[in-house]
Amino acid sequence: MKIIEVKNYEEMSKRAADYVVEKVRSFPGITLGLATGGTPLGLYRHLIEDHRNNLTSYQNVTTFNLDEYAGCDETDPHSYRYFMNESLFNHIDINKANTFIPRGDGEDMEREAQEYEQLIASHGGIDLQILGIGSNGHIGFNEPGTSFQSQTHIVELTDSTREANARFFDRIEDVPLKAITMGIATIMRSKEILLLVSGPNKREAFSRLMHEEVNEQFPVSVLKNHPAVTVMIDQAAGCLDYTPGSGDLEYVPHD
Ligand code: F6R
């Protein structure tokens, strides 16, 4: 796990965008795994800016998003499809037919989950997966206790996740109770992972990631078993907490 410490959210977003742009330029047919939430918004803003200024093309790029709320169709402003269209897809030259997000409004969610898993496999898997982290250590919507063997599946959201995401809704009661998410095994099959960690409310989760053993009660810890993970973290999220020499960590302090 390589940990790159940056000064603040803006610097993290810019570095993450440079990282992604470099991958897209060297492999125009790349399959990206994408996340929603507040953390990657700056990354997406920089990708759009780069697309406008430097003409990086996404015409041959395929994307798979991590998750979607149950019961939200793409016209619902709370849906992750809507979020991705507004935050990224509408502003770059990607073919929307190549952007995949699990459907939260399908009649048979279990079948949707299985088909999503097969779809990822049929595209040869994900080359680079972008991840954020929940304050309880979730990745995607894989809450504490989720099996590391899990494939794309339906989940009940925990109270802490619904509270954290209530900021995108008028009232917490409006936050869906369920979601569909890539499983931990799905995420772990990505060839490479870029984890973005920003802000004081991620401090404790990052500290746990540094100090805890890999365990299913803290889903993000599984990334320690992945051979190609880069973490970009800002100082507010607490890099100072890092202990040199722990495990296989490679630490790149900010300059
Ligand atoms: C989003 C996702 C979640 C978020 C996590 C952090 O698609 O799967 O795991 O990455 O909840 O959310 P933010 O970035 O809003 O703090």
UniProtKB/TrEMBL annotation:
Q: Ranges for the Glucosamine/galactosamine-6-phosphate isomerase domain? A: 10-225
Q: Does the keyword Hydrolase apply?
A: yes
Q: Which GO terms describe its biological process?
A: carbohydrate metabolic process; glucosamine catabolic process; N-acetylglucosamine catabolic process; N-acetylneuraminate catabolic process
CC per GO annotation: cytoplasm
- Its biological purpose: Catalyzes the reversible isomerization-deamination of glucosamine 6-phosphate (GlcN6P) to form fructose 6-phosphate (Fru6P) and ammonium ion.
The record ties this protein, via PROSITE patterns, to: GLC_GALNAC_ISOMERASE (PS01161)
User: What pathway is it annotated to?
Assistant: Amino-sugar metabolism; N-acetylneuraminate degradation; D-fructose 6-phosphate from N-acetylneuraminate: step 5/5
**Which PANTHER family does this entry report, sorted A to Z?**
GLUCOSAMINE-6-PHOSPHATE ISOMERASE
Q: Which domain of life is it from?
A: Bacteria
Record keywords, A-Z:
Carbohydrate metabolism, Hydrolase
**Originating gene:** nagB
Instruction: Please provide, alphabetically and separated by semicolons, the GO molecular function terms listed in this UniProt record.
Output: glucosamine-6-phosphate deaminase activity; identical protein binding
Tell me the enzyme class: hydrolase
Q: Does the keyword Hydrolase apply?
A: yes
HAMAP family this protein is in? GlcN6P_deamin
Q: Which residues form the active site?
A: 67 (proton acceptor), 136 (for ring-opening step), 138 (proton acceptor), 143 (for ring-opening step)
Q: What name appears for this protein in its UniProt entry?
A: Glucosamine-6-phosphate deaminase
Q: What is its EC number?
A: 3.5.99.6
Reaction catalysed by this enzyme: alpha-D-glucosamine 6-phosphate + H2O = beta-D-fructose 6-phosphate + NH4(+)
Q: Where are the transmembrane segments?
A: none
The UniProt entry's sequence similarity note says:
Belongs to the glucosamine/galactosamine-6-phosphate isomerase family. NagB subfamily.
